[in-house]
Amino acid sequence: MTTTPEHDRKIAEMTFASVYPHYVTKVERKGRTVEELHEVIEWLTGFSKSDLDALMEEKVNFETFFQRATLHPNAHLIKGVICGYRIENIETPLTQQVRYLDKLVDELAKGRKMEKILRI
To answer: Would the pTM count as exceeding 0.90?
Structure first.
C-alpha cells in the first residue's frame, strides 16, 4: 500500500514524546499498565525505560527513534489494519515501523495476551 509523501513526512517528523502520553492513556484506560506498555515497546525496539526517557528528553522524532532502534526479528509478523492501512502492505519502512508500534499498543489496550502481542 502506498502512502503519500506528505503522510510519510508528517510521521517522520512527529516526536515520540508527543505520542507517548497518548499510548499511556490508551492502555491505562483499558486496564493495562505502563510497565506492560514498556515491555511491548522494548520488544519491538530494544529500548529500555531509561532509553525511552532519554529519547523523550531529547525530543527525537520517529525517524531518529527508529534509526536508533533494533527492530525485533519477528516484527514482520505484526499484521492487520491500523489507521486505515494494512500494515504488511505499507511500502515506506519508517511508516510501517511506526504502524507496528501503533498496532502493538492497540493490541495491548484491547486486552490481548502478552504472548500473542509479542509473537511468542
So the answer is: yes
pLDDT in tens, 58-67: 999 999 999 9
Domain of residue 96 covers 5-117
Question: 21-30, 48-57, 84-93: lowest mean pLDDT where?
Answer: 84-93
Total domain count, the chain:
1
**How far, in Å, are 12, 54, 67, 72 from residue 40 at the CA level?**
21, 18, 18, 11
Best CA proximity match to 108, nearest among 30, 22, 20, 18: 30
Residue 63 burial (C-beta neighbours within 10 Å; 0-12, 13-18, 19+): middle
Residue 2 in this model has a pLDDT that exceeds 80: no
Residue 113 CB partners (closer than 8 Å, separation 6+): none
Helix residue ranges per DSSP H, 14-48: 16-29, 34-45
Task: HSE, CB side, 13 Å, CA atoms: give it for residue 94.
Answer: 18
